Amino acid sequence: MTQDGDQRGQGIPGGDDAGSASGTVFPGPARAGGDDLVQLIDASGVRHPHGHYDDLVADVDGAALQKLYEDMVVVRRIDAEATALQRQGELALWPPLLGQEAAQIGSGRALRSDDFVFSSYRENAVAYCRGVDLADILRVWRGNASSGWDPYTINMATPQVIIGAQTLHATGYAMGIINDGADAVAVTYFGDGATSQGDVNEAMVFAASYQAPVVFFCQNNHWAISEPVGLQAHVPIARRAPGFGIPSVRVDGNDVLACLAVTREALARARSGGGPTFIEAVTYRMGPHTTADDPTRYRDANELEDWAARDPLARLATLLDSLGLLEADYSDSVKAKADAVAAELREGCLSMAEPVPSDVFRHVYSAPNAELDRQQDHYERYLASFAQAPQEGPR
Fold first, then answer.
1. Is residue 172 within 8 Å of 180, Cβ to Cβ?
2. Active-site residue among 109, 130, 239, 289?
3. Catalytic option among 8, 77, 285, 310
4. Exposure b/e, 146-163, CB count within 10 A at least 16 = b
5. SS3 of 389, please?
6. Is 310 a known active-site residue?
7. What are phi and psi of 214, to 5 degrees?
8. For 326-350, what is the mean pLDDT?
9. Cα–chain center distance at 313
10. What's the pLDDT score for residue 146?
11. pLDDT confidence band for 337 (50 / 70 / 90)
């Protein structure tokens, strides 16, 4: 069993089949601090009924399950292609999301277009759900830009590398939603390690105080780089939020249907004036923290093997197969879609125009700025001086 996770109460209770009776964490309004894990599809691909959450995914028929599966296959292929690009020297760094596809796709597909996402650097599957241009995912990691995309084109802020800072941004945005009288929701994604940062806790203080329409989505992937979650959290992370007055829920983060259900509920609560919700999606980082990391130096291979048996794609594939929805034509079309997306991603990376030195002055201010213009003029004249310098002749 997982050494650092399950022994300290952070893993999936009861192992792979825990979800058959788990999960009345929100028996209507969210209960503060429940430890049960919401699970609708177990690791064996068996669909378990749930009196409350079934209603929240009643519209998810076979075709919708197939679309969720396609999404996960595609983003896993994006992740693999980006990792390959980094290994080939085309990217400086890449943060893999392998193993976390269900948490990101399930929650990402629950969002409305006017909701606004504030993420860390690993939520590339959420960006895919928001309709990001594929090349924009890679701009920062290739070193071609300070940020990847215009946040307002997809209603998703560019990835935040400062651990936990995005939770403050999300809460502030949610407070603005209240002032605007709108019913959109801010959603912020972060990892288990971020919950030890002051920013996350301060964000929850403000969110609870102002009943801001914000969803805190914690992907507990069991490792904050090389630190196991059991070292920093001796009880389930979801228990922390009720101390701030925020209802919380733990969900099987490898179950895309359950992640969809709990996120839909949290969004509905926020839209109706019920304030924030904290979701702990219990999942696992199958790969390294980034491509600069070697997890074999700190992680037991047996732990990785245990979690590989809970793979989010495999369990949904098994369920689809049992429903007769994984036939060859469909599987071939999914593979073709994933290959096409990967090819587009690679082409977008390799054809990306190199930035020019003066690009550093772009997008600093939203309006013209005389001081910045002065600095740019001085910088460009400085660069031009090198081209005008006389060439030294042979000695």
1. no
2. 289
3. 285
4. eebbeeeebbbbbbbeeb
5. coil
6. no
7. -135, 140
8. 98
9. 16
10. 83
11. very high
What pLDDT is attached to residue 56? 97
363 is known as an active-site residue: no
The pLDDT value recorded for residue 147 is: 84
**Can you tell me the distance from the alpha carbon of 14 to that of 325, in angstroms, rounded to the nearest whole number?**
29
Using DSSP, how many helices (H) and how many strands (E) does the chain show?
Answer: 14, 8
pLDDT bracket for residue 332 (50, 70, 90):
very high
Q: Which residue has the higher pLDDT, 80 or 11?
A: 80
Q: Which of 177, 148, 152 is nearest to 161 (CA)?
A: 148
- Give the amino acid at 196: S
Residue 372 CA to residue 255 CA, distance in Å, equals 49
Domain chopping of the chain, boundaries: 6-350, 362-388
345, β-bridge pairs: none
**Marked catalytic residue, from 52, 210, 271, 298:** 298
Q: How many CB atoms lie within 10 A of CB 143?
A: 14
φ, ψ for residue 277, nearest 5 deg: -135, 145
Distance between CA atoms of 2 and 15, rounded to whole angstroms?
Answer: 10
The answer to whether residue 289 is catalytic is: yes
How far is 171 from 375, CA to CA, in rounded Å? 34
Task: Say yes or no to pLDDT of 257 above 90.
Answer: yes
CB atoms within 10 A of CB 38: 28
Instruction: Return the CATH architecture of domain 6-350.
Output: 3-Layer(aba) Sandwich (3.40)
Gap between the Cα atoms of 235 and 242, Å rounded = 13
Take residue 2 and report the two structure tokens written for it: 């997982």
Average pLDDT, the chain: 90
| Predicted local distance difference test score (pLDDT) of residue 9 | 37
CA angle 107, 111, 116 (to 5 degrees): 110
* Residues 312, 259 contacting (CB under 8 angstroms): no
CA–CA gap between residue 164 and residue 173 (Å, rounded)? 15
Q: How confident is the model at residue 336 (pLDDT cuts 50, 70, 90)?
A: very high
